[in-house]
Structures are given as C-alpha cells and as structure tokens.
Here is the input.
Amino acid sequence: MPLVRIDIRKNDDPLFAKNIGEVIYRALRAAMNVPDKDNFQILNEHDAAHFIYDPAYLGIARTDGLVYIQITLNEGRTLDQKKQLYKAIAEGLLTALAIRKEDVFINLVEVKKENWSFGNGDAQYAN
Here is the structure.
C-alpha cells in the first residue's frame, strides 16, 4: 500500500500532476509488485515562494521543473527493488512528460504494516 505525495511548481496544464502520478503508479506496479487498484496519491502544486530547493546540491543541476515524490510504503523491499523504482520513475517521467531526470527527487518512507488503516477504523494489515 503505497501513499504517494507529488509536489510540483504550478503548471499551466491542469492534468500535469495527474500524469506524473500515472507514471509513478506504473513504476510501482512494475518495480515493487504493487497490486492493481492500490493507487492512493496526493497531488500538490505550489507557487515559487512555497517551493524551495537547492539548484546544485550533490552536483545535480535542478530547475523549476523539479518534482518532489514521497512514497510511504510497507517496509521490506530490497535495495535492488528500490533502485529499479527510482530508475523506472525517472525514465518514465522523461519519456512521458519530458521531465529531466535531474529534476526527479524521490524519498521513500518505510513503515510497518500495522501503521495503516484503509477505512472503518480498522488496521487491515495488522496481524
């Protein structure tokens, strides 16, 4: 169960953030074996004053086209799966939306399965 947060600068295309989310969901399905219909995303657009980044941290040249992606998911994925996910997202965004790989910033937050409630006040994944 990933929960994906996507943050970008305001874009003229009202579907731009949604299209980013679709690329990320496909990458999650391929690299992390996320099940069909397990798609929960929060899409945020910000003005320049509320979208801060360093344009050269770690020698990576970032632009205002930066996309912040934070994915909260169950712990237990391998390092190889994570690397495959990062690559699939960056390449997918480049191919589908011409987003530079340098402008793809990804953060994974791993949690235990009991830390989810999908509704009804139940801990559906708790053992």
